[in-house]
Write the structure tokens for this entry.
Amino acid sequence: MCSGSVSPHHILRAFQEGVDGVLVGGCRLGDCHYQTGNYMTDKRMRLLKGFLPFYGIEPERLRVRWVSSAEASELVETISDFTKELIELGPSPLRRSPVLQRVSKDSMNRYHENLSGFGS
Amino acid sequence: MRTLAVLDHEDNQVREDLNFLRDYVMQLFEKEMIKAFVGYRREGGHLIPAIFRTIGELDFMELDHDEVCNVERYPIGDICRRLLDSWPEGKLGVMVRGCDERALFEMSKWNQVDLDRLVLVGIACSGEWIKKCGCKKPYPDNLIVGKPVVDFTYSNTLGAYLESLSIEERKVFWDEAFIRCIKCYGCRNICPVCFCRDCSLEDPLLVKPGQTPAEFPIFHLVRALHMAGRCIDCGLCEETCPAHIPLRTLYRKINAIMEEELGYQTGVKDNEVCPLNKV
Ligand code: SF4
Ligand code: SF4
């Protein structure tokens, strides 16, 4: 399957499910079976990687590597390196921090106070 | 609330601008440059978008009065797209603010509107409104009515503040915001550049259906990603959101990345198209 068929939405869904990291592997740039699929992947992933930390997910949890299924040893190496780094990073913040269950009066007031300073 | 003085057009500037606009549009009709004009009229004390088909109807045309800072805005770009689609011949005149024009420029690049079928009649936003709204370019390229205010400073205060926080603090901020969402889809419905027929936000494989708050963060992140290379920072979504979620800040960020990483700026009339749409 071409890496160009991986929508950033799929990756967001994976993070929502609580995965610790996502690895997107594609053929080397210029080697795409569909000519340009991985160039599209590159653009989408750069956007997503830049955006994730603005919400609160470390960008290191998304990795994009140009290594195809034909390069077995590189693929294995990439996966084990990534796994090692993810273990160091610890569990995903979507699992780590307790999800607020409801909006309390206090949190509502705090929210409005915080925002009022920004004229929003 | 809008004051009676405004309803009666005691304000000279508004009356002057309105007369100028009526004359201008009248000429467009006379020269047969347009078949109809999209402007505003007043209904139940509110200013609403309306279509004017004849010179006679222009008597009912109204202008907003910015100084009271209670500007009533609508997704004019979206309205034009729908009108042009269902009305396959002839040109449409349309009154645009800076944001409306940016939306139309962007939509034309996404092949959603044909600019050749539109005659843009631009109006500048007032200084008072600019302070409240805070967009980068509060006047259209095709400026016809009013004077553009150019001496203002653009600032993305909340965005800058969030960038100064730690990643953990940012997540808490956004979670506290997102948990308030009542999933009314107002942000999507009001957006002038949201044109997909099947919306990802309603795809049960992406966002769990049937629950409030909308499943977060995914609901908001999916929408943000979809606004990459599209959002023209009109702020209608944030104005609409009943939960006061600072959505604009979110979409400003994704488009800042779009500009830095992929060199694309939304809402500008040039020959570029969104890099996500081309090889
Ligand atoms: S500011 Fe909101 S409503 Fe306006 S274009 Fe961007 S996403 Fe759409
Ligand atoms: S407008 Fe606000 S409350 Fe409604 S769906 Fe959008 S983010 Fe949620």
Notes: The radius of gyration of chain A is 18 Å. Residues B 181-187, 214, 240-243, 245 surround iron/sulfur cluster (ligand 2) (CB under 6 Å). Chain A touches chain B at residues 8-9, 12-13, 15-16, 35-36, 39-40, 43-44, 46-48, 50-51, 53-58, 93-94, 97, 99-100, 102-103, 107, 110-112, 114-115, 118-120 (CB under 8 Å). The mean pLDDT of chain A is 86.
